[in-house]
């Protein structure tokens, strides 16, 4: 019989948030794969647990090489527990490769649900939560970061991002440039920890605040784009949206079609605006 892969959520700050099943899984797993074995040791000590199984590291640097080893353990009947430093494995953390490989081998995969920085920040943000999308970490390079943000400039769902504290000011400034300085957002810092802070306001104000320096684990929640009717989008805006999509790699024909659907106008209207702008140069 094949084994089972267990993805276990770990506290994002307060150790008291550890799900009760986490201790049982840590104690009973045949193999515990941890993003950082030192942090795992602190976690098990805090929970008063001693893993009976073998403990191995599983992080970005060895994920590709170690995945086949863990799949072999699973195929041999082992119960493998995967934990990351905080939150749920696979969510901007190691885990996806192992889950995909296990699924391909028809190995059962289950989870111990736990704390989530994404859902916690979303709930605390004060922004709409009925529809949202998680965008993870933005690219580090300025040009690539702007390109990624432009791809979702018209997204009406609430957006959730992770960000490093030393890049927060640049990221918020880029968001203000692409989404507009008045777009509402929330910066959630050190969630569930002693110095938890949720700073809410327009992107322009948040960017100015972050320029002074911010510390801690950061999750950013941004309001989705406002819904606009066809009459509100003029030729210049149509041309701008087509240009943004072209810069992101779309062909002009595809960009025109996408913008037409996005704003609810015939393709001919967008095409004529693009042609007029080209002739006006």
What features would you highlight for this structure?
281 residues, alpha/beta, Cobalt-precorrin-4 Transmethylase, domain 1, Methyltransferase, Cobalt-precorrin-4 Transmethylase, Domain 2, 3 domains, 5-stranded mixed β-sheet, 10 strands, 42% helix, 19% strand, elongated, 4pyrrole_Mease_sub2, EC 2.1.1.198, cytoplasm
Provide a brief overview of the structure:
By secondary structure, the protein is an alpha/beta fold.
Structure report:
By secondary structure, the protein is of the alpha/beta class. It has 3 domains: 4-115, Cobalt-precorrin-4 Transmethylase, domain 1 (3-Layer(aba) Sandwich); 118-222, Tetrapyrrole methylase, C-terminal domain (Methyltransferase, Cobalt-precorrin-4 Transmethylase, Domain 2, 2-Layer Sandwich); 235-280, no CATH class. It is 42% helix and 19% strand. The chain is built from 11 helices and 10 strands. The chain has helices at residues 20-28, 37-47, 63-75, 96-104, 117-125, 142-151, 168-179, 203-210, 235-247, 252-263, 267-279; strands at 4-8, 31-34, 54-57, 79-83, 108-112, 132-137, 158-163, 184-189, 197-202, 218-222. The protein has a 5-stranded parallel sheet with strand order 3-2-4-1-5, sandwiched between helices. A 5-stranded mixed sheet has the order 6-7-10-8-9, sandwiched between helices. Strand 2 (31-34), helix 2 (37-47) and strand 3 form a beta-alpha-beta unit. Helix 3 (63-75) runs parallel beside helix 4 (96-104) and helix 7 runs antiparallel to helix 8. The radius of gyration is 23 Å and the shape is elongated.
